[in-house]
Amino acid sequence: MALLRRLLSPAPLALTIATLAGIGLALLAAPKPPPPTAAPPRLTLVPAAFADLPGWSEDAANEAWPAFRLSCERQMRRKPETSLGIAGTVADWSAACAEAALLADPDADTVRRFLEDRFRPVAALNGETAEGLFTGYYEPELDGALTPDETNRTPLYRRPGDLVQVDLGEFRDELKGQRIAGRVVDGRLKPFEDRAGIVAGALAGKGLEIAYVASPVEAFFLEIQGSGRVRMADGRILRVGFDGQNGHPYVALGKVMLADGLLERGKVTMQSIKAWLAAHPDQAAALMNRNPSYVFFRDLGDGPGPLGAQGVALTPGRSLAVDRKFLPLGLPVWLDASLPPVEEGAPPVPFRRLMVAQDTGGAIRGPVRGDVFFGAGAEAERLAGAMKQTGRWWLLLPAEVVARMAEPAS
Asked: Any residues with CB less than 8 A from the CB of 180 and at least 6 apart, and which?
């Protein structure tokens, strides 16, 4: 191939992805040179073969087929010339998606043959680094009520009507994947209230409450998951899904607690964070407010769900949240990672499977960074809470798109 490696890097204008490494106090009298600046994330694509994918022939790939078809159906509603970034255009997917629509219930071998005929794998790296971080999320279930009572007093809010959400990529290509939100005041976009302001009652009495739940901690983690279920006293279920964010940056509570010495390195999980907050109720609110980001929800009714950022229902164990700055939604991905062990000290469990990029997340940043959707229930919660594994992935792109990558530059 004339082009074995294609570098696709966002412009360095995005200062949020530039971080300084190794800054400490100067302990010597002589001045030290400034520490180097970490290289900005850069997606590198390396052509590969299906034989390079660990476990490719062993996966029950048909379990990912419903997710793939849903994404195809969504893509085909868009204009053929619509760009999908590294994945070409919608037109490049039309033949594969048309064929997929005719395969209602294929077995695993049929799915593999389909993908091998229509697609080509490319390894996705961050610069020259193949491995990245893979975490998990799930659909939690909270006890709640439609109106406040003595037990249920923490509101879940709808998106305010004056919240303006801006996709900066629509204005400049170098800002693709970046978003801000706020409200317009005197013709200018101003920051919206942060978490502390909203928790203190900035939105109270405006008719935005969808439901009330018993635990502010569980409400906080519902925001992190992005969707969930609220179970009423009579057994009815209200399903809610992400419908916007207040525009403030997401701050990971685990990192804050680690920096403050509240948790030990290597033992930061959703479960350990929840346990600490439950044991220190007098400090919990202030600690959670150090994450200024706040998520708004919408009522999803009783339809399939939860819905990801692509607008399709997520498939447990097969849907993946990615950074849309680097990867388009709807892309089939081969993931080579592991699951957290059931018992401490036990070896990790290999997690090699076909997945589909169908969602995004506030903490999902970088070209080799993914978040696995595990579904609902106790086991999904355990996996999502403990998942913090190193892994790598390959993107499956239409064969014609990969062929164009190999063409000599004119």
From this structure: 165, 166, 168, 189, 247
Both structure tokens of 136: 């998990």
Q: Residue 117 corresponds to which tokens in the numbers above?
A: 């005929």
Q: What is the dihedral of CA 335, 228, 268, 290, to 10 degrees?
A: 120
H/E segment holding residue 6: strand 6-8
Q: What is the pLDDT of residues 159-206, one digit of tens each?
A: 999 999 888 888 887 787 788 899 999 999 999 999 999 999 999 999
Distance between CA 228 and CA 231 in Å, rounded?
10
How many Cα atoms occupy the beta-carbon half-sphere of 301 within 13 Å?
Answer: 3
Q: Does residue 356 contact residue 121 with C-beta atoms inside 8 Å?
A: no
**DSSP one-letter code for 307:** B
Torsion angles phi and psi, residue 2, rounded to 5:
-70, -30
Q: Where are the alpha helices (DSSP H) in 137-235?
A: 195-199, 216-225
Task: Enter the pTM of the model.
Answer: 0.74
Residue 107, C-beta contacts closer than 8 angstroms, at least 6 positions apart: 62
Of the chain, the percentage scoring pLDDT greater than 70 comes to 89
How far is the first Cα of the chain from the last one, in angstroms, to the nearest whole number?
Answer: 15
State the average pLDDT over residues 276-303: 92
Interatomic CA distance for residues 24 and 307, integer angstroms: 43
Q: Are 293 and 245 in contact (CB under 8 A)?
A: yes
Supply 22's token pair: 């190794």
d(CA 17, CA 29): 32
The DSSP annotation for 367-384 comes to: TTEEEEEEEESHHHHHHH
